[in-house]
């Protein structure tokens, strides 16, 4: 990645994660975007490109993403784009856009409200429409198959899964944006009934509403406006076959390849923010990224503590940036995912000065 | 399975019923009826808008910077990118002028309840301003609907106003409280006056 121009994160902000937000998506995005811009030390008009990530199916409204632009300020007209994906991919597009070199600041944001709909009914619609959608193949069922495959292969135990959940919730106690927090006893968690075997409720992410925004800049601009920019040293995303039955669900080749291209293994990693929506997925991701035992994983609590769809991946990048900018960490890995059972994965390597 | 059956199956229903597949038969397509339900909390500013409708009032927010009036209120002005509050609330006129319209000729797709052509109009309200989109016209043949036509709201009777169809996403809907808009009989305003209207 050394041949491409250096880009840095200069501002970030996120909303709390709510089980059911009373505010509309543009309403709760409004202060988030303003805060990200303010933290970046720039003016709204300095932004040369804006890219958003959201999903109209979640909102249940066609062109819902257009309304979200009202939180950005699109008059006079601005240069903008949208991905029907997590905001992490909006960041990727913004990062690519900055490579052209003709503009020096871009805004990326992601937002979603899962509360109005029923995720178990909406998500099967992203599956194969002939064989899987009619079965109602929802994320929890697919994740349960994945967890079962891991347990059968001896790659994880239900206790390890509960430990991941307990650690995530404990870590989230210090995260003002998190939704599921607190200290939980692993034995008590394991005494709970299955939700969808072998998953218990603690293995599942909460249903969340929320948003996240990032401002990125060219090296010259970043040094000009920001005392401690967080450098994007590498960013890459890879996708696997759509049909989950055609890959080994106990591993994630796309994560491994994206991690290699992003340069995860080039130096010591201090912190990793992994978008593991289900407890067992954290182990797949940590394994594929080759994270050492001393890497601090999901200090924010991760997706098990707050899961605003379409923002949760971008929030991993914001949290990784926060670990560097506010907690003195030097090198962080952030991961975002899309599709079912880690079908598509984005890996981003961040460093402080 | 009929359309009615599948619509109650909570989104997981397939079109064709079970049977022994004929392997020689070429499959060109399949029917799939989808049913998704959304239940949304009304945001505070729209809740207040709905409450005012029950009282027989239209309200909006007037941007303290540019003066544009938003109905229903949004809680912000997207032009100036500033938040608006109850302090910016204004009571709107329930009279105005048609600035644009669409005549919809219903196609009988699944779920379509309309059978005859109908008009949806945009209305620019009298002072202090604001505009409502996708409004129904009553007491006026579809062919007579025109830009510049003066209209007034026909409210549902007090006690009969039901705002359960008002959502955060409705672009100025007053459904359930205002039955529609009828011509006032006043002379039209010049249509070309509204060429610059966004809606």
- What is the topology, as strand order, of the major beta sheet of chain B? 8-7-6-9-10
Helix content of chain B: under 10%
For the secondary structure, the number of strands of chain B is 10
Element order of chain B: H for helix, E for strand: HHEEEEEEEEEE
The greatest interface between two protein chains, and residues involved on each side, is: A-B, 38 and 28 residues
In whole angstroms, how far apart are the ends of chain A?
17 Å
Q: What's the average pLDDT of chain B? A: 87
How many strand elements of chain A? 10
The helix tally of chain A amounts to 12
In short:
The complex is a heterodimer of chains A (353) and B (199). Chain A is an alpha/beta fold.
Keywords, separated by commas or semicolons:
heterodimer; A: about 350 residues; alpha/beta; ten-stranded mixed beta sheet; 12 helices; about 20% strand; globular; B: about 200 residues; mainly beta; five-stranded antiparallel beta sheet; three-stranded antiparallel beta sheet; 2 helices; 10 strands; about 25% strand; disordered N terminus
How would you explain this protein's 3D organization?
The complex is a heterodimer of chains A (353) and B (199). Chain A has helices spanning 25-40, 56-59, 64-68, 87-99, 119-122, 139-152, 158-171, 186-190, 219-225, 253-262, 279-288, 312-327, and strands at 7-14, 49-53, 80-83, 105-113, 209-218, 230-239, 271-273, 296-297, 331-338, 344-351. Chain A has 353 residues and is of the alpha/beta class. In chain A, helix 11 links the parallel strand 7 (271-273) and strand 8 (296-297). The model of chain A has no long low-confidence stretch (mean pLDDT 96). Chain B has helices at 3-7, 44-55; strands spanning 58-62, 69-70, 76-77, 82-83, 89-92, 95-104, 118-125, 131-136, 150-155, 178-183. Residues 1-16 of chain B have low confidence and may be disordered. By secondary structure, chain B is mainly β. Helix content of chain B is 9%, strand content 26%. In chain B, the strands form three sheets. In chain B, strands 8-7-6-9-10 form a five-stranded antiparallel β-sheet, with no helix packed on it.
């Amino acid at each position: 990645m050394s041949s491409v121009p250096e880009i840095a994160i200069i501002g970030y902000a996120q909303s709390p994660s709510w089980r059911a937000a009373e505010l509309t998506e543009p309403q709760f995005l409004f202060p988030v975007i303003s805060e990200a811009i303010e933290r970046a030390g720039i003016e709204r008009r300095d932004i040369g490109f804006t890219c958003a990530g959201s999903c109209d199916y979640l909102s249940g409204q066609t062109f819902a993403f257009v309304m979200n632009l009202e939180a950005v300020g699109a008059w006079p007209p601005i240069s903008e784009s949208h991905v029907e994906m997590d905001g992490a991919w909006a960041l990727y597009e913004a990062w690519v856009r900055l490579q052209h070199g003709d503009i020096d600041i871009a805004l990326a944001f992601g937002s979603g409200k899962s509360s109005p709909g029923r995720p178990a009914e909406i998500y099967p619609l992203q599956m194969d429409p002939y064989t899987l959608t009619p079965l109602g193949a929802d994320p929890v069922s697919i994740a349960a198959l994945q967890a079962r495959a891991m347990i059968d292969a001896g790659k994880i135990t239900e206790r390890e899964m509960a430990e991941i959940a307990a650690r995530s919730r404990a870590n989230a106690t210090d995260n003002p944006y998190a939704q599921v927090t607190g200290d939980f006893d692993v034995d008590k968690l394991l005494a709970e009934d299955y939700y969808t075997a072998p998953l218990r409720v603690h293995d599942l992410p909460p249903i969340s509403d929320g948003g996240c925004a990032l401002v990125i800049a060219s090296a010259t601009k970043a040094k000009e406006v920001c005392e401690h920019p967080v450098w994007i040293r590498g960013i890459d995303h890879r996708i696997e076959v759509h049909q989950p039955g055609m890959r080994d669900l106990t591993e994630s080749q796309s994560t491994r390849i994206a991690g290699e291209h992003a340069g995860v293994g080039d130096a010591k990693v201090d912190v990793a923010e992994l978008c593991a929506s289900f407890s067992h997925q954290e182990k797949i991701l940590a394994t594929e990224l080759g994270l050492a035992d001393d890497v601090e994983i999901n200090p924010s609590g991760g997706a098990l503590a707050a899961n605003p769809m379409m923002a949760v991946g971008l929030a991993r990048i914001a949290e990784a940036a926060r670990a560097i900018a506010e907690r003195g960490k030097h090198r962080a890995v952030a991961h975002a995912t899309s599709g079912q059972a880690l079908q598509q994965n984005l890996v981003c390597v961040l460093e402080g000065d | 399975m009929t359309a009615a059956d599948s619509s109650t199956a909570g989104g997981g229903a397939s079109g064709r019923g079970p049977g022994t597949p004929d392997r020689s038969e070429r499959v060109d397509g399949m029917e799939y009826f989808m049913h998704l339900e959304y239940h949304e909390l009304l945001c505070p500013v729209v809740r207040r808008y709905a409450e005012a409708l029950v009282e027989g009032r239209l309200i909006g927010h007037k941007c303290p910077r540019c003066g544009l009036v938003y109905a229903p209120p949004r809680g912000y002005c997207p032009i100036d990118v500033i938040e608006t509050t109850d302090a910016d609330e204004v009571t709107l006129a329930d009279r105005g002028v048609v600035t644009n319209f669409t005549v919809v000729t219903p196609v009988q797709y699944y779920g379509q309840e309309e059978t005859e052509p109908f008009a949806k109009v945009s209305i620019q309200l009298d002072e202090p301003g604001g505009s409502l989109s996708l409004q129904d016209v009553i007491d006026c043949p579809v062919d007579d609907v025109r830009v510049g036509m003066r209209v007034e709201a026909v409210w549902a009777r007090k006690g009969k106003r039901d705002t359960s169809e008002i959502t955060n996403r409705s672009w100025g809907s007053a459904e359930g409280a205002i039955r529609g808009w009828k011509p006032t009989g006043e002379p039209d305003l010049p249509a070309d006056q509204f060429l610059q209207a966004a809606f």
